[in-house]
Amino acid sequence: MQHEDGYAGNVSVQEAFDRLANDATALLVDVRTQAEWSFVGLPDLRPIGKEPVLVEWQSFPPSGPNPEFASFLSDLLVKKGLDQNAPIYFLCRSGARSQAAAIAMTRAGYTQCFNISDGFEGHLDQEGHRGTRSGWKAAGLPWIQS
């Protein structure tokens, strides 16, 4: 079911992981910042024979979206031999940047751009912490940290 903004829609972290595991052409694109990848951690797709593609939606400190995001990612996808119908699952901290990335890539001609709605760390819990209530980490999906 297509989302009102034109992209393919939102999926849960578990649904994204299952689809990545069961579709050889499915790809996970983590759009967080270099700092987040280094200090917060990364989805570990090695158990399903894959690795995430890392492309910043915006750098830190935030100064707006990366103007080269769509062209850079498009070039990367072509190098991987994927066409514009490959399912792409976008991940950020809590689902906002990844939704924007899914919309941008849909506008660039990709037909199956999904937003992972709770992101890697999910939303804040009652103590103001992420990673405990929702998201990739809270769901117990594999992840690594350097």
Descriptive notes:
With 146 residues, the protein is an alpha/beta fold. The chain has one domain: Oxidized Rhodanese, domain 1 (3-Layer(aba) Sandwich). The chain has four helices and seven strands, in the order E-H-E-H-E-E-H-E-H-E-E. The strands form two sheets. A five-stranded parallel sheet has the order 1-6-5-2-4. A two-stranded antiparallel sheet has the order 3-7. Helix 4 links the parallel strand 5 (88-91) and strand 6. The longest helix has 12 residues, at 96-107. The radius of gyration is 14 Å and the shape is globular. The model has no long low-confidence stretch (mean pLDDT 92).
How many separate helices?
A: 4
Overall morphology: globular
The CATH topology is Oxidized Rhodanese, domain 1
Low-confidence stretches: none
- Calculate the terminal CA-CA distance, rounded to whole Å: 37 Å
Q: How is the main sheet built? A: 5 strands, parallel
Please identify the top-level CATH class. Answer: Alpha Beta
The secondary-structure class comes to: alpha/beta
Would you identify the CATH H-level superfamily?
Rhodanese-like domain
Annotation, overall tally of beta strands = 7
Question: How do the strands of the widest beta sheet line up side by side?
Answer: 1-6-5-2-4
Q: What proportion of the residues form beta strands (DSSP E)?
A: 5-15%
SSE succession = EHEHEEHEHEE
Into which percent range does the helicity of residues fall?
25-40%
